[in-house]
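One such given next:

>
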Amino acid sequence: MRALLQEAFQAAVAAADPLRMLAAHLPSPAEIAARTAAGGRTVAVGAGKAAASMALALERHWPEDAPLSGLVVTRYAHGLPCRRVSVLEAGHPMPDAAGEQAAGQIAALAASLGPQDLLVALVSGGGSSLLSLPAEGVPMAELRQVTGALLASGAPIQEMNIVRKHLSRIQGGRLAQLTAAQVLALVVSDVAGDELSAIASGPCAPDPSRYADALDVLRRWEVTAPPAVAAHLQRGLAGEIPETPKPGDPVFARVSHRLVATARGSLLAAARVFEAAGIRPVVLGDTITGEARDVAQVMGAIAREIAAHDSPFTRPVALLSGGECTVTVRGRGRGGRCTEFLLALARELQGVPGAWALAADTDGIDGVEDNAGALLAPDTLARAAALGLDARRRLDDNDGHGFFSALGDLVITGPTRTNVNDFRAIVLLP
């Protein structure tokens, strides 16, 4: 079962690999040739954990005799060697000066293009922090401060990105606003529901949110904005600073978006693995969000119902779900949202025979550690007790990483250079 769970997760990651998935979404050879003959340039820009693999996939499938250049920024240790598109690395999840410099160069490239040119925007999860070009008057130190506070607050990514879009010169549709070129945005979605305006804070997508919404997010999650951030948002609320471009803005007539990979596609790939093994897969949804331990409580209740009554599904069954949980950090542990979910689930499934689970982030990084997630076995709590590990205390300390590390049950893949968010599988055997 350990091997089967790992195989299913690997299939989910493979289904989101840009090197496999991106080519089908590129312009046809005839379109590329026509643009080249007309003297048009193609420039690729991008940001996110998948940026380097997307750039490499673009290079591999772009005609050698057609012009192609550009710049993408990805997380440290996620770069790949590309020939025609430069790859820079920067900070994630906390923005840094390297990301600010890269975003400035990307903005300049976009602004240099004319109507005859094509801007290919390679957008993936993680782009919100990597494509960090703070609004005028907002220093990077304060952008980092408010980002860190939002991360610790447990705010969902969509709400975090409302704030970030209104503190940026390039996000919230402003990248599309900067250029006169046609824009093709190729997107690897890490957001529940594949909402384009939320993925990497929507650099090429219309933004329905407003400065008032950004201030509401800070109030809701009890985040105190540093002085320059607060002043900028208040000026925007007062109409002294232009809003992000909204749906219906003429600028988006030049923009088309194509989803290269999604959480649902990855769940369906994993489902085929379980089906081939004689285990019925049930996809519960790719938009399941909320506090990790609360999601575990609900999933645990469903699993107990199946174990007790073979209802609403009969065993053997694999319950698959995606989305992005959150963790409100109260302890000093090293756990991410996937290990937090599993540690809470272990307690919910105590006494349920034949229950296995795996939860891992498809980008290969759960939180800020080197693991993608972890694996839960029927004997997890018994082995933990034999080692003197108190599951309840570890959960209270947000230390799922330490708990599963001590058991040797971490899932470690290294950077996958893609990101369609969390993958969760709960298997219940007869």
